[in-house]
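Researcher: Go.
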Amino acid sequence: MDKLIMVMNGKGGVGKDSVCAVLAKHFKTQNDSSVDPFREITRAWGWDGKTRDNKWRKLMVDLKQLAIDYSDFPANYIMGKIREFMASDKQVFFTHIREAAEIEKFISRAKAEFGDRARVRSVLVRRGAIEGKVFGNAADDNVNEYAYDWIYDNDGTLENLDADFMKAFSEWK
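Model: Structure:
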């Protein structure tokens, strides 16, 4: 398999990490989010590393937006992680980016830098029970504002996720 860079998106709780874990069973993967550095900041402020309530989600969105406005740090951070991935033997890189403008910026930069050495695709993971939920932050509430390459409806059971997602993935390739 060639190198594949997948921009993962979807509202909180739709199963993005579960989908990534499925591919990790079949390929050598790397999984980084544009908000990973901000998780460390919120841990220093008292976040327990587990609770992902609406207040915490909004804090993450706000911190990320400040960093985008100040220095484009989130995109630069992920591009650094992609360079590490490209130099490794890993096959699939997942990056979690929520904002449509940031997805577009990242995909444009990745295609320009890596050209034919990697396929870059955007993936929206949806789950019917979550789709109508309002989180109160632009990142979660506006995930449908981008035209994704692939959409995966994660409405099955956890027991069937591996087979179901791998079937969809094989059709996308």
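Model: The first strand starts at residue 3 and ends at 9.
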